[in-house]
Design a protein that fits this description.
Layout lengths: L1 H29 L13 E5 L2 H8 L4 H17 L4 E4 L21 H4 L10 H11 L3 E5 L16 H10 L3 E7 L5 E7 L7 E5 L4 H9 L5 E6 H6 L2 H10 L20 E4 L5 E3 L3 E7 L6 E3 L2 E2 L9 E6 L3 E9 L2 E9 L11 E2 L10 E4 L3 E5 L8 E6 L3 E3 L2 E7 L2 E7 L5 E3 L3 E4 L4 E11 L4 E7 L5 E6 L2 E7 L1 E3 L10 E9 L2 E8 L5 E9 L4 E8 L15 E6 L19 H18 L3 E4 L9 H11 L3 E8 L13 E5 L5 H15 L3 E6 L12 E8 L3 H7 L2 H20 L3
Parallel strand pairs: 1-2, 1-7, 2-3, 3-4, 6-7, 9-15, 16-22, 25-29, 34-35, 34-36, 36-39, 37-38
Antiparallel strand pairs: 4-5, 5-6, 8-10, 10-13, 11-12, 11-14, 14-15, 17-20, 17-24, 18-19, 21-22, 22-23, 25-26, 26-33, 27-28, 28-31, 30-31, 32-33, 37-39
Helix pairs in contact: 3-5, 7-9, 7-12, 7-14, 10-14, 12-14
Length: 727
């Protein structure tokens, strides 16, 4: 009996093996290979395996090379410090990168051409298996067979449902996108019952993703497309640097103020206010959870903070406006008066005198304008610095408002207004070089002349800086030059001389300044080399100095926001945004100088003096915008910036681009503007207007921690990009 049982057992085993083999062969031929299950990460940093990735994969001639391509994909994903990849599973022509058991899709030719006998390769299955072994999750982006992404709530195609179930993978459905069609968020859910969470992406702005992560707005982010990230990983590095640590509290920087959540009228400032316009923009606050009406009509607020604003027509006489918010009522009366018109046109002399023959002017302001037309403040030809002296060759009386005053002409033909200088006795300065030294920490060379403080005009010829010294002669010899200045030449002129400094194309001059000591009668020429990224991925801005100027302060509130003076006003938001930018820049290794760190008021002269003394690599004046409250400011929103010298234009454009990418604000403009703080040869200098204080919805967004951190992080990201552009 026992002897017979063994052959029966062997026969049964052989039959079972044969049956299993037959089932395996059927599964292989049907494309139903053993499933590989993906992992599910509770928090994810994702990359998208884009169309270019799929194209490279299908371009591989053998299965072995396709496997190597996928292995490299997982390794690069981990190097980007990501733990998830997302893909549609389709090639560009709509063919599948997997074996579709539903018979709906055809498999990509590059995959099927490798089929031999029972060997059938499934790239998606291989990806899931390799990724899962490394802790990398694979999810599928819902799409039609032609690659069109499916919106949240849409019916999933059969093949996608089967694919996700096979690998127990999550499916992503498009939740939102930009006007250009780029996805900004997905609904992320498992094939099993799981609440759909948000997976956010902002390919242009790791700054935005970092803020959303740190403020708990999402547990999942997409860094962007694999192909771009593999070629340049800087965006991923910025995200991880920004996302590290805990964000400091900005409450103190905002003056400890918050937006009131009750009904109030913040503008007009007083009941019974008299105006001469036919319209006025009413503003105020309200309980966002209760309806708001104006004279019985529903008022739309456009934000969840309860801040409101509306343009109203005014009849001549008294106009009463009543607002109802829940059980609260507030009224205001605005009295429109007919315009009186006219006004005094009488002019008067301010007591200034023309210059006498041989007199000099001495610049007394921190900066002064040399103007083509003394009556036109915008006709700036050059900027002169405090302490500069030059002989006056002519005087001219001009009108400034109702005042008649004088301007003084230099030998160049340009005019300096008397408000920027005083008349003194003087003589031709005889300048003699006293030495040159190089400060490696500041990347700067300083050339000192003794003998006077003459005004200096500048111009460029390719890589040569030409400095023309007015009312001056050159004596002595130039000292030995540092290697980055390839040549120096002095050309004498009529009661002037020119110093021409040429720099190598590979190491151009970045910034320069004139510093005068009127007591010692010395003139310093300060020259700065171009800053570059440090090469240290953990501190790419090490060695770079940025000066942040939080506009206004102290008794100067700047613009009042729509929520009134009980809420943060412009000076508060300027400081809060600058404080956020300082933290972000320091995360990247930069040295940050602040013109103010509290509710103090540095004058414009103080701010320019700080720039001239400390010689930063970049200067950014942080402001918020406003408009006169006589138009519908609900339609005025967005970010803009101003530059004076060409060197500031790139910084201005990059700041606006990054802030808009991080916040979704409108890109208004980047313009030339002769603001006091932008007129620096020392470094690129920009005045940045982040958003509108008087637009209720934009104010409500700018005032939040999310808005302020998005602004600050975007500023830091812009600085990184500008320095990176230096090569």
């Amino acid at each position: 009996m026992k002897k017979r049982s063994f052959p029966i057992f062997v026969a049964a085993l052989a039959l079972a093996v044969a049956a299993a083999g037959a089932l395996f062969v059927w599964a292989v031929l049907a494309g139903r290979l053993p499933a590989a299950k993906t992992v599910h990460n509770p928090q994810g940093v994702w990359v998208e395996l884009d169309a270019a990735w799929a194209e490279r994969l299908t371009a591989q001639p053998t299965v072995q090379q396709m496997k190597q391509n996928i292995d490299q994909t997982v390794a690069t994903t981990l190097a980007l410090r990501a733990n998830g990849v997302m893909l549609t599973g389709l090639a560009a022509d709509g063919q599948a990168l997997f074996r579709d058991g539903t018979g709906t899709l055809s498999t990509a030719d590059a995959v099927t051409r490798s089929d031999k006998y029972l060997a059938r390769f499934d790239p998606v299955q291989y990806l899931v298996r390799v990724a899962a072994a490394k802790g990398v999750e694979v999810a599928f982006v819902a799409a039609e067979a032609d690659g069109t992404l499916l919106a949240e709530g849409g019916t999933l195609p059969e093949w996608l449902t089967a694919l996700a179930a096979r690998h127990q993978a999550r499916v992503l459905q498009l939740r939102s996108q930009t006007e250009a069609g780029r996805p900004t968020a997905y609904a992320l859910a498992a094939a099993a019952d799981e609440t759909a969470a948000a997976l956010l992406r902002a390919d242009e702005s790791p700054a935005a993703l970092a803020v959303q992560t740190q403020l708990g707005q999402t547990a999942h982010v997409c860094l962007g497309e694999y192909t771009a990230l593999a070629a340049d990983s800087s965006a991923a590095a910025l995200y991880h640097t920004f996302a590290a640590g805990t964000l400091p509290d900005l409450t103190a920087a905002k003056g400890g103020k918050t937006v009131p959540q009750h009904l109030s009228i913040t503008y007009p400032l007083t009941d019974g206010e008299r105006v001469y316009t036919d319209k006025i923009f009413l503003m105020g606050t309200s309980d966002p959870n209760a309806p708001l009406t104006l004279n019985g009509e529903t008022l739309q607020r456009g934000n969840n903070r309860g801040v409101w604003g509306v343009l109203v027509e005014l009849a001549v006489g008294d106009n009463v406006f009543t607002l109802q918010n829940g059980d609260k009522t507030e009224s205001v009366m605005v009295s429109r008066r007919k315009s009186q018109g006219g006004g005094s046109t009488k002019t008067y002399n301010d007591g200034t005198q023309p210059a006498r023959s041989g007199q000099y002017l001495l610049v007394t302001e921190d900066i002064a304008s040399a103007l083509a037309d003394p009556a036109d403040a915008s006709s700036i030809r050059q900027t002169l610095y405090k302490g500069a002296m030059a002989e006056v060759v002519a005087s001219k009386r001009y009108a400034s408002g109702n005042k008649l005053t004088f301007a003084y002409q230099l030998a160049t033909g340009d005019w300096v207004r008397n408000t920027s200088c005083k008349l003194v006795s003087g003589s031709t300065a005889v300048l003699e070089p006293q030495g040159m030294y190089y400060d490696s920490a500041a990347r700067s060379t300083v050339l000192t002349f003794a003998g006077g403080t003459p005004a200096v005009f500048h111009s460029w010829a390719d890589n040569t800086l030409i400095l023309q010294f007015l009312s001056a002669e050159f004596a002595g010899q130039l000292p030995a030059l540092p290697e980055w200045i390839t040549s120096a030449e002095v050309q004498p002129g009529t009661d002037s001389f020119a110093l021409m400094l040429t720099f190598a194309e590979t190491d151009p001059l970045y910034g320069w300044a004139i510093n005068y000591d009127t007591n010692a009668k010395t003139t310093q020429i300060w020259l700065k080399r171009t800053p570059r990224l440090s090469g240290d991925a953990s501190a790419p801005l090490a060695g770079v100095t940025v000066m942040l100027d939080a506009g206004h302060g102290g008794s100067d509130d700047g613009a009042m926001g729509s929520a009134g003076k009980a809420a943060p006003v412009e000076k508060d938001l300027n400081l809060a945004a600058a404080t956020a930018a300082k933290y972000r820049l320091e995360q990247l290794g930069a040295t940050v100088l602040m013109t103010r760190t509290d509710d103090s008021f540095p004058t414009l002269g103080d701010r320019v003096t700080a720039m001239n003394t400390l010689h930063p690599d970049l200067f950014i004046a942080v402001h918020h915008n406003s408009l006169e409250l006589v138009s519908d400011i609900n339609n005025a929103w967005g970010t803009e910036a101003y530059w004076f010298y060409d060197e500031g234009e790139l910084l201005a454009n990059t700041l606006v681009d990054e802030v808009c990418a991080a916040t979704g604000r409108n890109r208004r403009s980047v313009n030339y503007g002769y603001y006091y703080v932008t007129r620096s040869n020392i470094c690129p200098a920009v005045l940045l207007e982040l958003g509108f204080m008087t637009n209720p919805s934009e104010y409500a967004e700018c005032e939040t921690d999310a808005g302020l951190w998005a602004d600050g992080t975007a500023i830091a990201q812009a600085v990184y990009k500008v320095i990176a552009a230096n090569g």
